[in-house]
Every structure is written in C-alpha cells, then in structure tokens.
Amino acid sequence: MAGGAFRPSVLSMRKTFPVIWSLHGETHTGKLDVTKERIELTSRGYTFAFPRDSVIHFVVERSAEARIRGLTSIKIRLVGEHVVRIASLGGAGSLHEISALLTSEGRIEPLRHGLAGAGT
To answer: CA dist 57 to 35, 64, 89, 112, Å?
Structure first.
C-alpha cells in the first residue's frame, strides 16, 4: 500500500447524533448533523441550521438548572445572540465528541469554551 494514501478527515464526513435540543424556550427531540461547513438540528417538523463559524462560544453546563430533561447540556452562543442548548441521547462520550466538533478548522482565533462553574 502506498504511504501517501488519502484518508478523509473527520470533518469531511457527516457526523450524526441523537439529541434533545432547545431554542427560544422550545425543546425538541431529534438529531444533530455536523459537517465541515454547518451544524443542523432536526426534529419532527422543525429544522435549525447554522454555519459552524457562527459559533462564538460554547460551554458544557453541568448544573441541575441548566440540564435538559436531566441531561448535561452544551450551551452554544451564536453570532446574532441566538443561544442553542444540546443534550446528547448517546451518552457522555458523545457529548464530548459534539463539544470537540464545535471547534471549527481554520479559525484565526481559538473558540472560547469551557465548563460552566469551573472557572473557565
């Protein structure tokens, strides 16, 4: 096998996760699709999508009042002051994978993120 074989990066592939998500006070059960260019949240009869580079900040929220249906959530702040919260139905490992995917490739400045209440 040739040493320079092409391997697609993780971000060149679509990643899908089962999630519960909240936007403007409404909670939806559905899926999260992450591609190199965009993030799309879909539920029965509703879709919210945004470019990956519109994420200006995210934080993993672990407090009881920040949870969605008892699950740890990620609070995502977007350009234009929209705030989306996502909780993974796939377990803690997938929540961390989603968190890692929120950081876009090619950013000039690093994306601010952290753990709520952890002094970050």
So the answer is: 18, 21, 22, 5
